[in-house]
Design brief:
It is a single chain. The chain is an alpha+beta fold and about 100 residues long. Helices cover about 25% and strands about 10% of the residues. It has a domain at about 20-80. Strands 1-2 form a two-stranded antiparallel sheet. The mean pLDDT is about 75.
Length: about 100
């Protein structure tokens, strides 16, 4: 909304895709109230089930390569661990979308 009405598009979002999350949040607020927006943890969100059956959601992972196999399994184990909150590192590789 900050850049609405500008002649240029600093986000490079010519198709308007950045409005999708805004519309989703507006629909959630309308249907369930403002309080329902509190539990959203960020984007991207991964939700999984711990071994004890409880659900956990976390922001990320933000990675330059798609995690698979043991790396993905380890990510889920870490995210499902009680007390896990956040893990960050400096960007050190360009995205590989192939």
């Amino acid at each position: 909304m900050l850049n609405e009405g500008r002649d240029d598009d600093p986000e490079g979002d010519l198709g308007g895709y950045l409005w999708v999350p805004v519309r989703i949040c507006a629909a959630v607020r309308e249907e369930f109230g403002h309080e329902a927006l509190g539990p959203h943890v960020g984007t991207p969100i991964v939700a999984t089930t711990r071994q004890d059956g409880t659900r956990v959601a976390f922001f990320g992972p933000v990675m330059s390569r798609v995690p698979t196999g043991e790396l993905w399994d380890a990510t889920l184990v870490l995210a499902g661990s009680p007390g896990f909150h956040e893990l960050k590192a400096a960007v050190h590789a360009e995205p590989d979308l192939g």
